[in-house]
Specification:
11% strand, alpha+beta, Phosphorylase Kinase, domain 1, 429 residues, 2 domains, five-stranded antiparallel β-sheet, Aminoglycoside 3'-phosphotransferase, Chain: A, domain 2, homodimer
Chain lengths: 429, 429
């Protein structure tokens, strides 16, 4: 299949004939395409995803569609998101290491198609957390992934010329940024058709948040940073549904929202999803791995994951600051090279402080949009009892508002998690 | 001359033959190219500038060279800066209005050549200020120019898609951004070959500043903002040498450093140049328009210009915020449309506060780099007496350090100008 051919969506039936000649596939799963089995497994909102299995193995074939799959052709979305996903994956692998994202075997730009590693027996992290599974490696793996991709994609590490060229490339990922700009930062905060929430239980709280001046000003300031502050190549959609895990392995997938944006955006979105998992646990009591038991140990696990993820992120970012700060920012000639290592430490503390403050803001709005906006989370959605779900969601909403608006005056997870526990227990309502 | 021809630098001798067939010229200055007079007047560091006069009038022909004119071929600089200058000029004229920049008659990308309005009897603002001339319109004109170009080039006004496309285009102006990144934010703060300062008079103060941890951390944070925060199309070199004036007219020229950067950068650079003029006035006592007199009224004039420029900037930016806020940021549906105009006012105050704080930082480093770095200002350079010059420069350096490092804790020009007066009088040394 030549990259110059007009786009055509794959089907289970046509896939073997269309891809059977591609060495990147046949060398991995076997040359007898007629005997391949093809399964369509896309459960996301946007794309086609096939598992293609031959006698030698299996691969994933992911193909973008020229519209949002969930909605249909009435919501067009350009195929080029596949181009951005491919280029983000290659950069992430180079920056965070082989084995942090799926291995990429083949990319066809015209067909918006990526052939990549079939991850098995991996599951989506979000589903594992809903089931009450405690994955021991995620904090370490994700803390390292974020520190390495975000540091190494910034002017702390890259040559300025290379980063600017990359900014130019990813600036064209405008339609997917537009989705985030609307669905995360604006739509949740006023009444618009695409929004939904658990109603009538949350109606009054939702009205309160939509009248909350401080919150809305903060959300718009964060939107401005999201749109304008092109400091590093971010994943752009780093929630627990974009992570696949086993007990021993963690992979970050689906970076089609990638663009040059704020370091704190990825960190905040990930943290938000852990906090949402925390507040959703009481909706899953007695289900999953801890049948009959409560989810208190899961809640403690999640708070621990948050603390550890940040701690690993911070220490790895600091290590890179000390060892790989070869970009144009905070030039060593101003600090270490003239006998002022504390100047570099002062700058590092300030740099990470800024990430911390903005991380809390991004986390707050991410929590809100998953409960008030268009795209909800399975963490809450799978709680069948509407009253119970609303109780969980209300706690998360209040928590999100607090960390977003007060982000410049919050110093540590100790105070955040003390508050989370008080909200969870209903002491603060 | 076709745009596809290989670049060739114009000379006084070849210009009429090469440009004599271009209607944009002949219609303005006359068709008899053989009788044109051509004068080369480029006094800048980078380009060729010709005044071409025919029987009907005169135009300016500005041509980039593939290297820095001042230094020679050993410092290559791409011709594409002419492309960025042309596109910045057209955008500035569209955003700030006809008559705020020179009218553009012709652009030849391959020859890196712009034919534009010959401004006469305009002079460079910097020279006028050195002479002690008080221009009555500059504060108003420059305040409006900045508010309009900076607001209308941002996501407050533009469609997000259009701004991102433009960010992609201007991200390629990497070599000129590189000059600013090095010469403004880094080189002044350590010993490097390109730097110079009035020596030995300033040696100890320079050593002190280069050992000043807080200052250097601040300068690097500002560099990060400069490089990453693509919030609007900035002029990028908005000092008093990039402004031509008469008593009644103000034109902003030479935007070849244009790129998408922080709103506060243009504002800070302009203010810095007014403050440098302020501290340089005592070096020009008895010279220029106020012969025999002192320059106290000129100093008061300059402080007044600064206050008025900011005031006009702020009020025009606010007017645009209220009337033209049609971009994706601070959507009216969140504020005015739901009966919360004070939400919009809160956001505006915060937005302008952030510009204020960063403006002071950018102003501080701009002052430093003009005294410690490669590119000095005529304001100080034309003070022949080295001791007198160093006295003026030392005051400016100390002032620059103060506003840069303390920028988050400074609230008004009242306190800044009270400090400036105390430094000028030697009360604070």
């Amino acid at each position: 299949m030549s990259g110059a051919e007009a786009f055509q969506a794959l089907t289970i039936e046509t896939l073997p004939a269309r891809l059977g000649g591609i060495d990147a596939l046949t060398s991995r799963i076997g040359t007898n395409a007629a005997q391949w089995t093809v399964k369509e497994v896309g459960d996301g909102n946007l794309n086609l995803v096939f598992i293609v299995t031959g006698d030698k193995g299996a691969v994933i074939v992911k193909q973008a569609l020229p519209y949002v799959r969930l909605v249909g052709e009435s919501w067009p979305l350009p195929l080029k998101r596949s181009f951005f996903e491919y280029h983000a994956l290659t950069r992430q692998e180079a920056r965070a290491g082989v084995g942090t994202v799926p291995a990429i075997f083949h990319f066809d730009e015209a067909q918006a198609l990526i052939v990549m590693e079939y991850l098995t027996p991996h599951v989506i992290l979000r589903h594992a957390l809903i089931e009450g599974r405690q994955l021991p490696k995620i904090a370490n793996d994700l803390g390292l992934f974020m520190a390495r991709t975000l540091f190494r994609g910034s002017d702390l590490s890259m040559k300025a010329k290379d980063r600017k060229a990359d900014v130019g490339i990813f600036a064209d990922n405008v339609e997917l940024c537009d989705i985030t700009e609307n669905l995360v930062f604006t739509d949740p905060y006023y009444e618009t058709e695409l929004n939904r929430h658990t109603s009538p239980q949350l109606d009054s709280l939702v009205a309160e948040l939509r009248a909350d001046r401080d919150l809305k000003v903060e959300a718009q300031k964060l939107k401005h940073m999201f749109a304008a502050n092109a400091e590093t190549l971010v994943h752009g959609d780093l929630h627990s549904g974009s992570i696949m895990v086993t007990h021993d392995d963690t992979r970050v997938i689906d970076p089609e929202f990638a663009f040059y944006g704020p370091i704190a955006f990825d960190v905040g979105m990930l943290m938000a999803n852990f906090w949402m998992s925390y507040f959703s646990q009481s909706g899953h009591e007695g289900a999953g791995h801890e049948k009959g038991g409560d989810r208190e140990s899961m809640r403690q696990y999640l708070l621990g994951v948050i603390v550890e993820t940040w701690s690993i992120f911070r220490s790895e970012f600091s290590r890179l600051w000390h060892t790989e700060r070869n970009g144009m920012l905070y030039d060593r000639r101003l600090f270490e090279d003239r006998g002022d290592p504390l100047g570099s430490e002062q700058a590092l503390d300030r740099f990470i402080h800024d990430i911390w403050v903005d991380m809390l803001g991004f986390a707050g709005v991410e929590i809100h949009r998953r409960i008030l906006g268009l795209a909800h989370n399975a963490d809450f959605e799978t709680i069948a009892d509407q009253d119970l779900r609303a109780t969980c969601e209300a706690k998360a909403l209040k928590f999100g508002r607090h960390i977003c608006v007060n982000r410049e005056r919050i110093h540590s997870f100790d105070e955040i998690h003390a508050l989370a526990a008080r909200i969870e227990k209903g002491i603060v309502a």
